[in-house]
Amino acid sequence: MLSKKLASRITTWVMIILFVSVIALVSGADWITKNFYQDHLSNEVETRISSHAHLLEKNADDQIIEYIEEVEQGKNSILLILDKELNLSYVSERISSSQLHDFQSWIHRILDQSEAISEPFLDHVETEMRFHIPHVWALIPVYTDEEITGYVFLDQDTGELNHARIKLLYLLLIMGAATVFVGYLFTNYLTRRISKPLNHISEMTQNIAAGDLDIELNVQGKDEVGRLADSIQSMTKQLKEYRDSRRHFISHISHDLRTPITYIKGYSAVMKETPPDEQGEWKRNLTVIYEEATRMEHLVSDLFLLTKLEEGKIKLDKEPILVSDWLTSLYNSRALMFDQKSIHHQLAIPDAVKGLAVWMDSYRMEQAMINLIENAIRHTEKNGAIELSITMQKEKVIFSVADTGSGIAEKDIPHIWERFYKADSSRNRQQGGTGLGLAIVKEIVEAHGGSVSVKSKPGEGTTFILQLPHSP
C-alpha cells in the first residue's frame, strides 16, 4: 500500500536523521566538556604547583609544608617534594611503591628529554578507565640562589570532574532518547495523516484508469495534497467530458453518415431494378443519390477542417482587408438566399468603419461569416428579418449577425460550440446543417486572436457577435 510504503520510508529517514543528530550532539558535548574540564584543570594545577614552588624557594620549613597540605586538602591530588637527586622528601598521602615508581619514572623521562625546566611542565596521563578525563601530572623545579635544590610533583585526579561530565552525558542521552521517541510518534502520526489521503487518491486514480469517471475525491484542505486532489478531480471531469463528447461524436457521425449511405444504397438498389428506358425514374433516383453524396462530402469536409483548426495545422494568410467592402461583397452573395425565404435583410456599416483595414485571412473569415449567415437564414421563418453589421470599439472590430428566428434556450447556449451538439428541434441537423458550423466559426475566430459570443432568447431571435483585434 502507498500509505505503508510512504509512511515507513519517511519515518525511517527521519529516525535516521534524529539518531545521527543525537549521536553527534552527545559526541560533541563529550568532546567539548572533556576539553573544557581538562583545560580548566590544567590551568588550575599550573597555578597551584607554581605557588608551591615559590613558597618552597623562600623557606622549606614545616610551617610551609603544613600550609601546602592545607591547600591540597580535598583536591584529590598527590603532592611529592623531591630533592635535586630525586629522592623523596615529602608525600602528601600514602601511595603504593608501584605508584611511586610510576611517578619517578615519568619524572626521569621528562628530565632526560629536557635539559632544563624553568616553568611548570604538564602532561595528561590516560588512565585505564575508558572515557575518563586524563590525570594531570605536573613538575616544576625549586630554585635557591638560582640553583635547583629540588622538585615539586603534582598528580591531579580528575574523578569528580569526570563524574560531573558523565552525568551531563547521561542527561543528554536521556533527552536524545526522548527526542527520538517523540519524533518517531510525531513523524509516524504525520506521515500516516499525509499518506492516508494520498492512498485514497491512488485508489481513486486506479478506478479512473479502469474507466470509472464518476468518482468524487473527498479530500479537504488547501495544501499540496488538496491541490493534487483538485487537479485530479478536474482532470477526471475533463476526461468524462471528453468521453461523453467522443461517444456523442461517434453517435452523431455514425448517424449522419448512415443516413446518406442508406439513401444511396436504397436508391441504387431501386435503379438496378428499374428499366433503363424509364428516364424520369432514373433521373429522380440519381438526384437523390447526388444530394446525399454531396451532403456526405460537406460533412467530411467540415469535420476535416474542424480537426485541422483544433490541431493548429491550418496556416492563416493574414493581410489588411477593407472590412466594409469585404462584408458588402459577402452580403450581396447571399441576397438570393434571403429572397428565397422572403426574409427582410439589411447591412449596417457606419461611416467611421468605411475604409478601415483589418488584418485577417479573408477566406477563412468568409467561411465563418457564411456559416453564421446561412445558420441565421436556416432558422429564420418566412418574412423574418436578418441584419449584418460592423462596428469599431477601442482596438476591436465587431461583426454581428442578428436574426428574428426561434432563438436558443439558455441551457443550450454553453454547448452550441460543441461538435454535433443537438439543441431543440428548431436548430438541428435535420434542416440541412452538418452540426459542425458553429464549432468551425469558433476555431477560426480564435485562430485570429478574437472571440465569439451569442445572445439569444427563445421566440425573440439570436445575435452572434464576432470580435477581432484591429491591429495584427
UniProtKB/TrEMBL annotation:
Record-listed E.C. numbers: 2.7.13.3
Molecular-function annotations in GO: ATP binding; phosphorelay sensor kinase activity
Keyword Repeat part of the UniProt annotation: no
Ranges of residues in domain Histidine kinase: 252-472
Regions that span the bilayer: 168-186
Pfam families (UniProt xref): HAMP (PF00672), HATPase_c (PF02518), HisKA (PF00512)
Topological relation to the membrane, as annotated: Multi-pass membrane protein
Keywords: ATP-binding, Cell membrane, Kinase, Membrane, Nucleotide-binding, Phosphoprotein, Transferase, Transmembrane, Transmembrane helix, Two-component regulatory system
Reaction catalyzed: ATP + protein L-histidine = ADP + protein N-phospho-L-histidine
GO CC annotation: plasma membrane
Superkingdom as given in the UniProt entry: Bacteria
Domain HAMP positions: 192-244
InterPro entries xref list: HAMP_dom (IPR003660), HATPase_C_sf (IPR036890), HATPase_dom (IPR003594), His_kinase_dom (IPR005467), HisK_dim/P_dom (IPR003661), HisK_dim/P_sf (IPR036097), HssS/ArlS-like (IPR050398), Sig_transdc_His_kin-like_C (IPR004358)
Class of this enzyme: transferase
SUPFAM superfamilies: ATPase domain of HSP90 chaperone/DNA topoisomerase II/histidine kinase, HAMP domain-like, Homodimeric domain of signal transducing histidine kinase
Protein name: histidine kinase
Organism name: Evansella caseinilytica
Organism classification: Bacteria, Bacillati, Bacillota, Bacilli, Bacillales
